[in-house]
Write a structure and sequence with these properties.
Blueprint: E1 10-11, H1 17-29, E2 32-39, H2 44-51, E3 59-67, H3 72-75, E4 78-85, E5 90-96, H4 106-109, E6 114-121, E7 124-135, H5 137-144, H6 156-165, E8 176-188, E9 197-203, E10 209-217, H7 222-235, H8 247-262
Parallel strand pairs: 2-6
Antiparallel strand pairs: 1-7, 2-10, 3-4, 3-8, 4-5, 5-7, 6-7, 8-9, 9-10
């Protein structure tokens, strides 16, 4: 079972032949593959210009995480998140990682609310199971403002999912709000890479920025699309560095350090 496992993405360059076979099997059992690249601060503006991204076309989002100040849930491989999204309903998400798709209970694997996805980054990969439900933006706002309990934000199915994988974890209503993170999301289909590329700009409260580029594909096309995506990004002058600091990890660590400093 996955509870309590290390959540750091494994480095592709460090995998043995046997582990590479396991990765291929993992991709084959997933619902989708998302290829991601986090850009260094020095490359963010150049990348936005090269892709022809207009910030005025971006969708505005607010992202909130929920955990203890010492990130007990995250250490157990569980991430709780809610989003407010301009122009549509937000959502509440429970993410478990890493997972082995074939090890998930049949009820979870067949749930229409669950997506099993392999995130592949320069130098690493991780497989996760995400259980998502739509939530009105106002309900998220009420919860963050303290007028609605956190447990009411998640469905009965999601609460059972949390309890199954963090049985010794804190009560949902005892968790702290880690956020918000202000997010701009834009989508472009470049001529030289005719696939949907998503660019997300995450702004942390101290003014630091994280820019992530991503594209999704079916598992059967993962290797070919990964090669094409790498060639495209390198063709516009972007250097892909191994093991980038992912946006979720960066956000959680930022707020954990803020809580630690306040004690």
């Amino acid at each position: 079972m996955t509870t309590g496992t290390e959540t750091t993405p494994k480095r592709l360059m460090a995998l043995s032949g046997e582990e590479l076979v396991k990765l291929i099997d993992l991709v084959g059992s997933a619902d989708s593959v998302e290829l991601k690249a986090t850009l260094s601060t020095g490359e963010q503006q150049r990348a936005m210009a090269a892709l022809g991204l207009d910030p005025l076309d971006a969708q505005i989002r607010q992202v909130f995480f929920f955990d203890t100040p010492d990130l007990r849930l995250n250490r157990a491989g569980v991430v709780l998140r809610a989003r407010r999204i301009k122009g549509r309903d937000g959502d509440a998400i429970v993410k478990l990682r890493p997972v082995v798709p074939d090890d998930l209970p049949e009820s979870v694997r067949r749930s229409r609310t669950v997506t099993v996805e392999v995130d592949a980054m320069p130098g690493g990969y991780v497989c996760s199971a995400t259980m998502k439900t739509p939530v009105p933006n106002e309900r998220v706002r009420e919860m963050v403002g303290g007028t609605r309990p956190l447990r009411k934000l998640f469905t009965k199915e999601q609460r059972a999912f949390i309890a199954a994988h963090a049985p010794d974890g804190p009560d949902p209503d005892d968790l702290r709000v880690l956020g918000p993170v202000f997010v701009l999301k834009a989508v472009v289909v470049p001529e030289a890479f005719p696939r949907r590329v998503v660019a997300e700009l995450w702004l942390l409260p101290d003014g630091s920025r994280i820019v992530e580029l991503s594209t999704k594909c079916p598992p059967r096309k993962a290797l070919r699309v990964a090669a094409e995506a790498r060639a495209f990004l390198e063709s516009i002058g972007l250097e892909l560095v191994p093991d980038p600091h992912t946006k979720t990890k960066a956000a959680l660590e930022f707020f954990a350090e803020r809580f630690a400093g306040a004690e």
